[in-house]
């Protein structure tokens, strides 16, 4: 069987990324959006990825990932469908990793199918910390990683683009991606290995 290619693409620069670069404190920005630089990174990635034979895009429901997915793939020659999947949202440690209700996202992104999302699709269990953030336990991230790998293995497409986040991708690929950076994985018989 020919291995499948998974293109792991980190979102463009977000307002929270900029805030973290300037200060070690959580900027308390729920579901941070792309900056102007992030939007430019997305446009550059659109040109770099235009000739990849992408058949499906799987994106995190966090706004910066939705903006990146639609910005890169809306006019891709293959017109791949975009599947919004909360299994590969960012590991929730800070405010920028907290999502917004599915109904709000549906109003902002009416061209995406979001009806399958629960209203609260991010980690919201247990007691919040002093910032009001429900920090996700590491074992929950490991469970999501396993379920996301199983989802990828179940898909029939040969080339899948996955648009998401630095910490999640670090756990998935072992690589810390820059904004709009790409890691290429080969998926074969249910296991993923770094390509090249």
TrEMBL record:
Record-linked Pfam families: His_Phos_1
CDD domains per UniProt: HP_PGM_like
Domain of life: Bacteria
GO molecular function annotations of the record: phosphatase activity
Cellular component terms (Gene Ontology): cytoplasm
SUPFAM superfamilies named in the record: Phosphoglycerate mutase-like
Protein name: Histidine phosphatase family protein
Species in which this protein is naturally found: Lichenicoccus roseus
């Amino acid at each position: 069987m020919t291995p499948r290619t998974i293109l792991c693409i980190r979102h463009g620069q977000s307002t929270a990324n900029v805030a973290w670069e300037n200060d070690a404190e959580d900027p308390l920005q729920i579901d941070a959006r792309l900056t102007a630089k992030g939007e430019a990174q997305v446009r550059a990635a659109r040109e770099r990825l235009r000739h990849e034979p992408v058949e499906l895009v799987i994106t995190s429901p966090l706004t910066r990932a939705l903006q990146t997915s639609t910005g890169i793939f809306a006019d891709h020659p293959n017109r791949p469908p975009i599947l919004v999947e909360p299994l590969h949202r960012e590991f929730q440690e800070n405010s920028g990793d907290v999502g917004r209700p599915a109904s709000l996202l549906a109003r902002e992104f009416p061209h995406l199918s979001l009806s399958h999302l629960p209203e609260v699709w991010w980690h919201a269990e247990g007691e919040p910390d002093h910032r009001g953030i429900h920090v996700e336990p590491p074992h929950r991230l490991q469970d999501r990683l396993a379920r996301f790998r199983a989802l990828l293995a179940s898909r029939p497409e040969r080339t899948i683009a996955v648009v998401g986040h630095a910490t999640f991708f670090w756990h998935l690929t072992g690589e810390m991606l820059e904004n709009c950076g790409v890691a290429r994985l080969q998926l074969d018989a249910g296991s993923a290995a770094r390509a090249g």
